[in-house]
Amino acid sequence: MTASGSASAAISGRTNRPADLPAATGPRCVVVGGGASGATMARYLKKENPKFDVVMVEPNATYMSCFLSNLWFDDLINLETLEHSFDDAAASSGYVWLQGKLIDLDREKKRAYTSEGYIDYHYIVLAPGIDYNYKSIGVTDPEMVVALMQKFPAGFKPGSEHLSIKKKLANFEKGVFLATVPVGNYRCLPAPYERACMIANYFKKNKVKAKVVLLDPGEKPFAPKAPGFLAAFKELYGNIIDYRPSTNIKSVDPIKRTVTTEFETIKFDDGAIYPRVRAAKLIEDLGLSDPKSPQMEGDIDVYKYFAKGDQTCYITGDCRPMPFSKSGNTANSEAHYVAKVIAAHEAGKEIQWTSPQTICYSMVNGTPEEAIVVKAKYDKKTFGFTDVHLDNKRSRALGKADHEWGAGLYRDMGF
What we know:
With 415 residues, the chain is of the alpha/beta class. It is built from 12 helices and 23 strands. Helix 2 packs parallel to helix 11.
């Protein structure tokens, strides 16, 4: 590993030509990743300091959100609700979107090497999201990993995976649809339970003779919302959802369509299998991950988000190590704060730590649309929940609020 924090494997992909970008008009800030963290960051860096010249590097052609996506599986929203234009967001927020991928980083020169050429920067923010750890469910053979990813995608990296699951539901005729909950701090803690409800409701209203088997390593669903989810499982989907808590997956065979737990081997007909998550491998490749972290998240100052020893390089969103929820709303509110941190640093100032906020609606009934909700902030010392507002009584009012919350989040990200 070099002093710049680059990996030799990454260096081999470098190009020595600059990216085709306009000349910087001020301190250049490069944001890597266009998800809830990165898109918000690019927009709010410009808001906090209009002199910043902001470039967002994102390989996908369009933005598609994970939040609200479970509603699409039950036909409660259309695909256009989830998909948005990076061109429109960049134009409305005053930054430049470069469709490309970060390959390497030289932090001594402050140079980011992308698939489209290099970019010299004053500040860089890395928000590349998650990758999956299939070893966590006993799948290590590359052939089996690829088979599992393509046949039974987890559906928590938006785009192709979501389209695949939607097609699975449309074509499912009968039998067992397998869904799983990962261990650790995974992307959107309540989402696997909401997804089970939305899939079950889809089967229910379309009269599909199906059973949704939900395997959970925990003793109960995501703690604050456990009563709301358990009530929905029992009262709405008692003959559809087969919820199995305290169940750890030992292995999966995507060819035979079997999953083996501590207790039994389960045969399934189709499914979406969600392994443990880790920070995007890019963070590790750049030498910026904490080797002590079980999810290989960034080694950063947990209050100011900069890589230790380098206040020009920041890591946010699902790659930060703090146990905040890996959710869209959390990443969005966190980006507001980090944009202020960077603007303050540029001005030679300091600001007080501000907790991110988690606001999470979960649609548990699709007919009629009824949701539950939790809202919380985090304690500065323990990073545990504080200022919690919780409503586990499902209602149409919360169902409506769910849609409004999502629309507001898109607007705040610039879409």
